[in-house]
Amino acid sequence: MQKIIQLNSPVLGAVTSFADNMCMCYIPARKKIEELAQEYYLRVADLPMTIHAINNNCEIREALRRKWLDTITGEYHGLRDGDRSYEIWHSVGSLSTLNGLEQAFSIAEGYGFMKIGNNEWDAIGKGTFNRRVVPRVHLEDVKKGNVPNIGTPYTVFVRLDKDSPIIYDTSPDHDYDQIGYTRFMRDDRILMLAGSPDNREALAKLLFGARKDGGDGWDSVYSYHRINEVDFHSIARGRLVGLYRFFDCGIGGNTLDDSGCFFAVNRVMYEKTITQRIFMPTASEQALAIKNDPNLSRQDKLRKLSKLY
Q: What are the φ/ψ torsions at residue 250 (nearest 5 degrees)?
């Protein structure tokens, strides 16, 4: 029912699909990959980890060819200080956990979006989750490559009205049914989902590259989202995102059609193949931390903020 990807030792990864054109139901697939991850000392993969593993290992690439893969990367929308905020959470938030996803799944709304508690939404906005610091990176910093290493939980955010990101809409009755390579490489949502410019380039190589070079050979792909159709309520919503490479190809949120296929990867697949460096908080992260520091007076906050810019 599942496929174990292994050369000799250690196990490189596991995927829950049991046939090239079939998947388990969504929650059972999430449960199964959790069991496999514990058994083989793997980590359930978010989208950056999935892209990196496929791009850097031919055995994994072949095992996952022509499959749709759900991940624990999620896309979220809500209000922050009255502004419409679109966010990508990599390996962060209650939906990235089995228990949290299972509880929210039963009361999912249109397009598969699930409610996110105000406490969780507020904590993530302040750069924490379950009392742990979670790097929070603005889209402009992602464009510069100022992001944590692959495998590090972090969030990416953009203010839709203030920042005016480039996001192509491939929903029905909109401008683009699919997007080609050029628009793919300009699309800010795809950049946020991939996690970094390097990872977006790797994903483009995977999707648009020639088959003789290990790519899928697509001329254009879908970008499944509903940013221009959803309502921004006082309660935020989110859904997990997957990479689809079977009958058609695209990247988008799970609409909860009750099918699922999750992937888990060995840490060696990303920890030994990335350039090790110390992640320094971006200016926007530091500014947010200063703003939310209860131990600083207003004057001290202004003084510290002035030194950032």
A: 180, 180
